[in-house]
From TrEMBL, chains A, B:
This is Response regulator transcription factor. Pfam families: GerE (PF00196), Response_reg (PF00072). PROSITE patterns: HTH_LUXR_2, RESPONSE_REGULATORY. The modification 4-aspartylphosphate is found at D56. It comes from Chryseosolibacter histidini. Residues 5-121 form the Response regulatory domain. Residues 148-213 form the HTH luxR-type domain. One of its GO terms (molecular function) is DNA binding.
Amino acid sequence: MQKHKILIADDHAMVRDGVKNLVQQNKDLIVIGEARSGNETLELFDKLQPDLLIMDISMPDMNGMEVSRTILAKNPGASIVILSMYDDEDYISRCLEYGVKGYVVKNESGSELEYAIRSVLQGKNYFSRQAQDVIFKKYSQNVARKKTQEEEISLTKREIEIVRLIADGLTSQQMADRLFISPRTVETHRANLMKKMSVKNAIELVKKAQQLDLLQ
Amino acid sequence: MQKHKILIADDHAMVRDGVKNLVQQNKDLIVIGEARSGNETLELFDKLQPDLLIMDISMPDMNGMEVSRTILAKNPGASIVILSMYDDEDYISRCLEYGVKGYVVKNESGSELEYAIRSVLQGKNYFSRQAQDVIFKKYSQNVARKKTQEEEISLTKREIEIVRLIADGLTSQQMADRLFISPRTVETHRANLMKKMSVKNAIELVKKAQQLDLLQ
DNA sequence: GAGGATGTCAGTAGAAATACGTAGGGGATG
DNA sequence: CATCCCCTACGTATTTCTACTGACATCCTC
């Protein structure tokens, strides 16, 4: 049987041991190395080429996110599960950005970590309960904000057409050619749009339209 | 003890009974109504004002998503858990958009539903394993796409600063004032940016910068 | 049929952006 | 020290955008 090779990175021996025990209760998993710092993690990852890296987010020299970014820059498919003390939104979203596949908050049960390991080795992502809560909260805040703004502003069909063309980077002349109307008319629409949406130039107009989800 | 009032909506009696049993094993929960269609759900929700609505996504007259949207438009804080046969990405993301707080795929265990009920009643979101997998897959695809584009273009610190100000809708003069440099210099940066990023005007520049995640 | 919303177009004027090219000072690096 | 990159800055010319005002036809509604 081919065992999955796992590298553990944490500056606390006790945590390393705990994770190691947890991992090695599974016969198809084997811990092939332990790192005590960010730099050591980078070295060992290169040398050992593990199937999975389980890493603390806070380490003395370089934090887990920076290590993740470095590793994932060189090894885009690498599997990394982050262990963190915190369910901080910044941390979590940065990890997602960098391509980390798992994120488990330490005060959650060991089964969360096991589930994360299983999922990631199967090629899926796994963010633990608390981590998801944070993401969903952020997401729904965004949605809520969009909803409340959306009410007041109502655009005509033509105006929506125009604002989309503006967002595509066309000049008034180009829009006029495409719509078979005068460039002056396009400019009228543009002016009306800016007035309706309380902005001072086309760039802010496009941003606002994006926020209101008017572009496609 | 104040019991949490729950409304169940599903066109299949067997599913309703199953959910009902599951719910009423908890002493602090009580099923106060059952709806067999989308329209009935809307009526009962208005009349009964439940603390939580557990609803099938597919119903004869109006599907669960449309019902959700209608209810949430009138009751922005309403708690809704969607039961679905499918882990379709479109369904899930639409539910998120509308403000649905829970999404459970039917072939998952009953404990997923219980967990969802608990979480939502506590004011949190809960999307079951399969639903999350879909979202994360989508998310990481986006990240991956972004990454591949990012390589070629490298901007200097000053250029990044400028492109962000452009994205904020400032004119060259305003940027010059803020950065204590000549407006001509700002225009030089702007021109260099447009050349580097192969675009013809500021709007396309901003869009490109957004794609490359250069704006904060 | 009066009134409102929409889409169309124009004049005038000034502000801003874009397209060219050129160039010096400073820092890092070989 | 030569070279490259970055930041800085200017000249000239043209295009595009923004601001403000006024106007007319159409369609819908009350």
